[in-house]
Design brief:
The structure holds two protein chains of two kinds. Chain A is an alpha/beta fold. Helices cover 28% and strands 33% of the residues of chain A. In chain B, helix 4 links the parallel strand 13 and strand 14. In chain B, helix 8 packs across helix 9 and helix 10 runs antiparallel to helix 11. Classes of the chains: A alpha/beta, B alpha+beta.
Chain lengths: 245, 483
């Protein structure tokens, strides 16, 4: 497959900005702050930061935050929400497979299923290696992704959403061989249909734990949602916190 | 009103290929003028260019290293303008617009800021292009009113690295350039020799009231040849623009040349828009198509970069931040350090010796670490001899100097010259007794409270033993005997 057809280059554009809704962002940010417990001025990297809905509030809590994303549209939107005060936040348009950072981080986060984008397993693994390499020893990595078991058990094959001024049809399937969640999204807006595709590798908690361990990250905690509930088959999220040993 | 500058940089870096971008001519610097030319780089009618695959490969190395996205398909366009050193009448380059994509977009580098933090400077793109020739006006051998043209440089492969206009100070610009230079050299795509013009910088400067987000009219300063000059050109141009606005003037879009000797900017021409160049796809060149397999291959070839190395050294070795910076300043030094440590030396002494004695020798002899006669294994052996107490630090410096000259193994030098440290208590006892007996007045002063004299005794003992006495033991024995 040529990179021309990489789904993520088409998916995260203006349509995404229009339909992406997150009423619980405040809860998520509070969870991050409480779980990471970072001293003021710590260096934090937000991988796949999108339009900065975590990046900016985290920076406003006296952290030095860098948001990295590949989508120019989402980053453009992020700069519109920049606070005027002296918050230490910057955005980098880049690729998670290569980090260009000058200093190590105290913590790295990967929120809202922004991991597992590559068809080639080696490339997903490379991202974890980059994360581990970019952390100080004792540094923290927090990942939040969809719970594979929940998706298999509960996600209906077709879902229709009606955000303002548009209709979204999501057709989902799950490839048991590659453990990929596959979603075909049809966006209907002003009578026009746009077709988007989304494909991410989902991991069980056990798999993720082993992958993290293999890059020197030791799991400290696993949760099933942003209220800090235990992780079960029926948890919507898989949230894991690991420490670089 | 307070103004702040907005700075964007375009860095032209020469790729370290063996041949030019579209023909087999050598891109070597310093050849007899107008000898490295052929019908292709002269643009003679009917000559057909063929893209050098290495150019794309090298451009991909640096692009991926700074986190760019490689475009699966990009084209070469002709940028049309007339100049005597451009025999074709156009430069083959790439372009970015709604219809055209260059080889790579996005990415960025992180630079330190004045308040001790860092900022990310984003890149707009990295594209490939050919260099133009050189017009020579000001050299002594050119008669006044005449110009000479050397077209050897026509077709030398360049990449242009274009930053977003988001550099805030001339210091940031300097750090940005330093980091890019380091990345280019680390990845091996550019030799980075400023004196040979391997990196040339166009600086775009505009100013705006502090707090405003609108960009002012920009002035471009062309062909700055060093990072310091770039800093000075930015400050000079910023001051000029502020003075102009404050006296009621307006800023004209223009292209300027920086004269570093006078610290002055001279207007070169009023700026053309890209429309003026009549860009169009070069019909003689096929599109550049890059597939995932190629990208993956290049990604795997990229060496560990200075940033990643710094982080790893900080995690793995108990050495200072300054030492990390020095040790990672070049790949060869970093490799040397790591081999020394993996050959059995402690990280701290290895770092100290590299930072001190090794660097001193490299500077004095003007050699690279690859040319040093001492292998990392020998240095590790030397440090182990100190660690085991076989030789003292002082003796080690003598052995080191000998190693620098001969490249011999430290153990054999120590044995041949009988430099083993004296750690035999009875032998040292006798020597200390002798020195005390020979220096009655100093002993009296010492006992009278002049404790600094311990240095005198140490010196005498070292002299008597030709520096081979174990200093720790001597100091202990001295204190015991002098009370």
């Amino acid at each position: 497959m040529g990179s021309e057809s990489a789904w993520y280059d088409r998916f995260f554009r203006h349509e995404y900005l229009a339909f992406d809704e997150h009423p619980n962002t405040n809860l998520e940010v509070d969870f991050l702050l409480n779980t990471l417990q970072l001293p003021p001025q710590s260096r934090l990297l937000d991988l796949g930061c999108g339009y900065g809905r975590h990046t900016i509030p985290l920076a406003q809590n006296d952290l030095h935050v860098i948001g990295l994303d590949r989508s120019p549209e989402l980053l453009q939107d992020a700069t519109k929400h920049l606070p005027n005060s002296n918050t230490n936040v910057s955005f980098l348009r880049g690729d998670v497979r290569q980090f260009p950072f000058a200093l190590p981080f105290d913590a790295i986060i990967s929120m809202f299923s922004s991991f597992g984008y590559f068809d080639d397993e080696n490339e997903n693994f490379l991202v974890l290696q980059n994360i581990s390499n970019a952390l100080k020893s004792g540094g923290l990595f927090l990942i939040e992704t969809a719970n594979r078991d929940f998706i298999i058990a509960h996600n209906p094959p077709v879902q229709i959403y009606r955000p303002p001024n548009m209709t979204l049809i999501e057709e989902r399937s799950f490839d048991s061989l590659t453990s990929q969640s596959l979603v075909d999204v049809t966006v209907i807006q002003d009578g026009e249909e746009t077709h988007l595709h989304h494909a991410i590798r989902l991991y069980t908690a056990t798999e993720m734990d082993m992958l993290l361990a293999s890059v020197g990250l030791q799991t400290l905690g696993v949760w099933g949602d942003f209220h800090g509930s235990d992780f079960t088959t029926d948890s919507p999220h898989l949230i894991m916190l690991a420490e670089k040993v | 009103m307070n103004y702040e500058p907005v700075i964007g940089l375009e860095v032209h870096a020469q790729l370290a290929t063996n041949t030019k971008i579209f023909c087999g001519c050598s891109p070597a610097f310093g050849a007899e003028p107008n000898t490295h030319v052929c019908p292709v780089c002269l643009g003679l009618p009917g000559a057909l260019p063929v893209l050098n695959q290495n150019v794309v490969d090298m451009a991909m190395h640096i692009s991926l290293a700074v986190g760019c996205t490689i475009q699966p398909r990009s084209r070469f366009l002709r940028k049309n303008y007339f100049y005597p050193d451009l025999p074709k009448g156009y430069q083959v380059s790439q372009f970015q617009s709604n219809e055209e994509m260059p080889l790579a977009t996005g990415g960025g580098v992180e630079v330190p800021t004045a308040d001790g933090g860092t900022r990310v400077i984003n890149l707009t793109r990295i594209h490939m292009e050919e260099d133009a020739g050189k017009s020579i006006h000001e050299e002594g051998f050119v008669s006044s009113g005449e110009s000479l043209v050397d077209v050897n440089r026509c077709g030398v492969p360049l990449i242009e690295i274009v930053s977003e206009p988001e550099i805030a100070t001339s210091d940031e610009a300097f750090h940005y350039l330093t980091r890019l230079h380091q990345m280019l050299v680390y990845t091996g795509v550019c030799e980075g020799d400023m004196e040979k013009g391997h990196m040339r910088i166009d600086v775009n400067v505009s100013i705006r009231p502090v707090g405003s987000t609108k960009l002012g009219t920009k002035v471009e300063v062309k062909n700055v040849n060093s990072f310091r000059n770039c800093q000075r050109a930015i400050d000079t141009e910023k001051d000029r623009q502020i003075a102009l606005l404050e006296t009621g003037g307006t800023i004209q879009q223009a292209t300027m040349l920086f004269d570093p000797d006078r610290n002055q900017l001279r207007p070169m021409r009023t700026k053309e828009d890209s429309d003026d160049y009549r860009y169009f796809p070069d019909p003689d060149l096929v599109p550049v198509v890059v597939d995932d397999a190629w990208i993956t291959k290049v990604r795997e070839q990229i060496p560990e970069l200075p940033e990643a190395k710094k982080i790893r050294f900080g995690n793995d070795f108990d050495i200072s931040r300054d030492q990390i910076d020095i040790l990672t300043s070049s790949r060869d030094i970093a490799d040397y350090f790591e081999t020394t440590v993996s050959s059995g030396a402690g990280a701290k002494p290895a770092a100290n010796w590299l930072q001190g004695d090794v660097m001193r020798v490299l500077n004095e002899q003007k050699i690279t670490i690859g040319e040093l006669k001492i292998t990392p294994q020998s240095l590790a052996e030397l440090l182990q001899l100190i660690d085991k107490g076989t030789i003292s630090g002082n003796i080690a410096r003598k052995v080191f100097d000998e190693m620098v000259d001969t490249g011999d193994a430290p153990q054999s030098i120590v044995e041949k010259q009988g430099l083993v440290q004296i750690s035999d208590t009875s032998e040292l006892d006798g020597i200390v007794d002798q020195i005390i007996a020979d220096s009655p007045s100093e002993v009296e002063r010492y006992k009278g409270g002049d404790k600094k004299l311990v240095g005198f005794f140490m010196g005498q003992i070292m002299k008597a033993t030709k520096g081979q006495a174990n200093p720790k033991m001597v100091s202990q024995i001295l204190r015991e005997k002098l009370g």
